[in-house]
Amino acid sequence: MVRLNFDKLMSLMADYACRFYSFGCLSLIKVIPAKTFYLSGALRLSLVVFLLASCSGTKNEEGVHSQNLETFQSYQLSIDAERKSFSSIIESIEVVTLQETDNSLLTSASRVLKHRNEYLVINKSDEEVVFFDSEGKYLRTFRQLGQGPGEYQAINSIWIQDDELFIYERQRSIVFKYRIEGEFLDSKKLPFEVGHVIGYKDEYLVEFNYTIIEDSLMYKFGVLNSEMELTEKFLKTDEASDNIDMNPAPSMFSYSDGVLLTHMYSDSVYYYKQGQFKPFIHLDFGKDWYWENEEVFNQDNLASSNKAWETDMSVSKKYAYVWTVVGFSHYDYFIMDRTTGKLVRVDLRKDSDFSSIITDLGWEGDKWLVSMLPDDLLQLSKELDHELPNLDQLTRSENPALVKVKFKDSAEW
Fold first, then answer.
1. Which among 135, 145, 137, 134 has a CA at the least distance from the CA of 104?
2. Spatial CA neighbour of 341 closest among 53, 83, 61
3. How does pLDDT run across 41-73, given as a tens digit for each residue?
4. pLDDT tens digits along 360-378
5. When comparing pLDDT for 130 and 354, which is higher?
6. Residue 380's closest CA among 371, 175, 281?
7. 378 to 300, 372, 384: CA distances (angstroms)
8. CA 354 vs CA 108, 125, 290, 332, 394: distances in Å
9. Are 302 and 276 in contact, with CB atoms under 8 Å apart?
10. How far apart are CA 273 and CA 266, in angstroms?
11. Region 238-249: what's the mean pLDDT?
């Protein structure tokens, strides 16, 4: 009831707030304590969300602001919506079969970077980077595992910047820099352990993940300069759950000359660009969001809640993919057209409610890049009546394949 009254109040305030939001709201983000900032029911988030949303253009029929995709948007998602088959929203697919050799046996392809005409597949189980050309031909493997100079013990974050490869190792809080061909160039030690790191211009954005800094303070995100000195802190929090561990999934991604930032147990995505940090996307599950009423982390409550409580997403200029955990019962998946607000709950389930036929790898333009195991890809191509190239090689290979998915016009979803 409090939320409804507050929403009405914000709608009345919105017209008067627009002219002030650019300065006021972005400044508030830096100074308002954010113990529950990520909760959609918290008043602090509502204030920023509604003021920003009120200034981002007129609503379309789906109820989102689509005039300017660089401004804040909120999307309504329903975990009770009808599931649609993956093939029913696809116009076409392109397949890159990853060559299988003695040096390119992949246990997974859960993270892939694209650099010029090469794909860099992070083979996490062996802590190595396997290079393929744009057609899937094996090129080389990069692996500097160890404890000596230029050697890492794990790949916890990885990115490419200015034709150089960067790897963050969490255990020793070190960022390693290599030439793209593999030559070690430099390493820098962070002043504290963080969850994930990504480079942005001459800065490093970090996800603190409840790391205590400055004696007793905790924040969600921060910025380090080139000397690894902390220059900015965002989303202050007062306490952390004992159940929170370092999230293995990457939480920061390059987007439109900036960086998108996500964090655990959050229904919001933030955007950092040229020193400005702001809310970017809000996933509105309504009453089906577990943290709506500022619940505490409790496994029994989560298991019986049948509510969404963890999300992840990847974003392009036109589309977004959303993954969420519902109770302890299943995963849910959504594809949305950001330009129209049209979205579908898509069926990506495999053998169980906690396995998927695809692994999200991000976007190449407006094509969704995913990895798929051969059997799953064969089934999808059959549903699409799509003739696969290199079919013999694919059926004999245990390597996953890279698939570029082009969606139908969302009006046809």
1. 137
2. 61
3. 333 433 333 333 334 443 344 444 444 667 899
4. 999 999 999 999 999 999 9
5. 130
6. 371
7. 39, 9, 10
8. 17, 20, 19, 9, 25
9. no
10. 20
11. 60
CA-based radius of gyration for the chain: 22
Can you tell me the distance from the alpha carbon of 364 to that of 371, in angstroms, rounded to the nearest whole number?
13
Smallest CA-to-CA distance from 370 within 22, 201, 119, 154 is with 119
Structure tokens at 105: 């046996």
Between these two residues, 395 and 88, which has the higher pLDDT value? 88
| CA-closest candidate to residue 179, choices 134, 111, 129 | 129
**What predicted TM-score, i.e. pTM, was given to this entire model?**
0.82
Q: Which two three-digit tokens encode residue 385?
A: 């009546």
* pLDDT recorded at residue 68: 63
Element (H, E) at 44: helix 43-53
Q: How many CB atoms lie within 10 A of CB 6?
A: 15
Separation between Cα atoms, residue 135 and residue 124, nearest integer Å: 22
Q: What is the C-alpha separation between 9 and 47, in angstroms, rounded?
A: 10
Label residue 102 exposed, middle or buried (CB < 10 Å: 0-12, 13-18, 19+): exposed
Cα–Cα distance between 98 and 119 in angstroms, integer?
10
In this structure, how many other beta carbons lie within 10 angstroms of the beta carbon of residue 380?
22
Q: Are strands 276-284 and 73-76 parallel, antiparallel or unpaired?
A: parallel
DSSP 86: G
Label the pairing between strands 83-85 and 343-347. parallel
**Calpha distance 150→127 (Å, rounded):** 14
What are 172-211's pLDDT values in tens digits?
Answer: 999 999 999 999 999 999 999 999 999 999 999 999 876 7
Residues 172, 174, 178, 180: is their CA dihedral positive or negative? Answer: positive
Long-range contacts (CB closer than 8 Å, 24 or more residues apart) made by 162-171:
163/115, 165/120, 165/129, 166/199, 168/196, 168/197, 170/194, 170/195, 170/246
What pLDDT is attached to residue 61?
A: 40
Query: Is 60 exceeded by the pLDDT of residue 219?
Result: yes
For 222-281, give the DSSP string: EEE-TTS-EEEEEEEES---TT----SS--EEEETTEEEE--TT-SEEEEEETTEEEEEE
- Distance CA(132)–CA(118), nearest Å, equals 6
**Given this model, what pLDDT does residue 69 score?**
66
